[in-house]
């Protein structure tokens, strides 16, 4: 049964760490045990009743200026970006479209940690079990990261399904998958759980973070968390959204790579969100991948399916050069991208990135660096 949040959470955001810690010191011990502290981006989440206690203490100490410096944000919800589900099974055309098999003799993503913020991953799936290395359940800390929806397992398969004699294969078949389960079975997640997952990814040295979800509502807390992850060297890949409207968040934040959907006819999908900060498009229509229940595979459409193709590309790059920064990865992808004819720029960004062109760009960069 899904966990229900019976108590309301709030986020408090401070201008700096000193004021954050001063707030922390003003809280009673009981509240300290229940809150989550995010020192990297000067935030904490706590129950609303504990916030009322904090306000009372500030009032008693005649420190209204301190209260005015606090930015309070509610615990908004995010939804997964999958569109249509079908039972047909076909060869995953997206892996071929981005030319991943052509580079596997050079790179299969070995050893690169990829975090999947989603509904969990079925770690026992025969096409995934060798690559799922760990994870966390921030939605319900008393349970493992079992996928009771299917979305997360599908995303994981596109990133790193094993290259074996059955099923499907992912973009980076030797990458290491980490399940960051934030989403309920019905496909919604609270900001408090997503923030905790990003913090977990930072502390566990994840290199690529797939975020196949979004909200039309901007969140200063989420933006700070994403900035902190970027500073920690994590490349973040976010799905654009499926409303044929402007980009959802977190895809709209400039620190993330925003990914729209492409169909097998090389056309931008009609549902794919758009905007001037859209980075690339990738396969996102009728994508076959792993599934947690029999027959073990399913075909989905949505920008949720596009983002993991790009996450897999990032893993292929990092396996070749682990020292690459997120900025360097983005520059290499920009160089490798090719635009789609007759598609508006705000609906395709820089276009399509293939693995062969991407690794060629990396090779060129490495040669240039060695000659200096």
TrEMBL record:
The active site is at 118 (charge relay system), 151 (charge relay system), 304 (charge relay system). One of its GO terms (molecular function) is metal ion binding. The keyword Hydrolase applies. The keyword Hydrolase applies. InterPro entries: Peptidase_S8/S53_dom (IPR000209), Peptidase_S8/S53_dom_sf (IPR036852), Peptidase_S8_Asp-AS (IPR023827), Peptidase_S8_His-AS (IPR022398), Peptidase_S8_Ser-AS (IPR023828), Peptidase_S8_subtilisin-like (IPR050131), Peptidase_S8_subtilisin-rel (IPR015500), Subtilisin_Carlsberg-like (IPR034202). Keywords: Hydrolase, Metal-binding, Protease, Serine protease. It comes from the Bacteria. Pfam families: Peptidase_S8. GO terms for biological process: proteolysis. Residues 109-351 form the Peptidase S8/S53 domain. CDD domains: Peptidases_S8_Subtilisin_subset. PANTHER family: CEREVISIN-RELATED, PEPTIDASE S8. Belongs to the peptidase S8 family. This is Peptidase S8/S53 domain-containing protein.
